[in-house]
Amino acid sequence: MNKFGFSLSPSSAINLDQVDRTFFNKLTEVEPDALRCMACGSCSATCTAAGYTGMSVRKVLLNLQRGRNEEVRKMLSACMLCGKCTMVCPRGINTRSIILNISKLW
Predict the structure, then answer these.
(1) Domains of the chain: which residue ranges?
(2) Any idea which fold 22-105 has?
(3) CA–CA separation, 100 vs 82, rounded Å?
(4) Is the model's pLDDT at 1 over the cut of 70?
(5) How far apart are CA 49 and CA 80, in angstroms?
(6) Fewer CB in a 10 Å sphere around the end CB: N or C, the chain?
């Protein structure tokens, strides 16, 4: 067999029918703005912590929707609650409130 200098990585596909979304559903009951996020990345672009820690409100919401709660906990520990993400959100989502409500629900 020929070696072409690359290898296949395991699939990262997520079966959304098997994901436990109970935590995300609890969040949307308290903070319905979480459903309005269009994952544009404006929050990530302005986040002070993102360049050093990988913190991103966009990734937090996507990981909650995918049932990856442990990754969310790690990211939220890096958030400084500065509010820059709230100021640049094109949909006017209070991302700071979402982060605080996630912390309260845990």
Answers:
(1) 22-105
(2) Fumarate Reductase Iron-sulfur Protein; Chain B, domain 2 (1.10.1060)
(3) 12
(4) no
(5) 7
(6) N
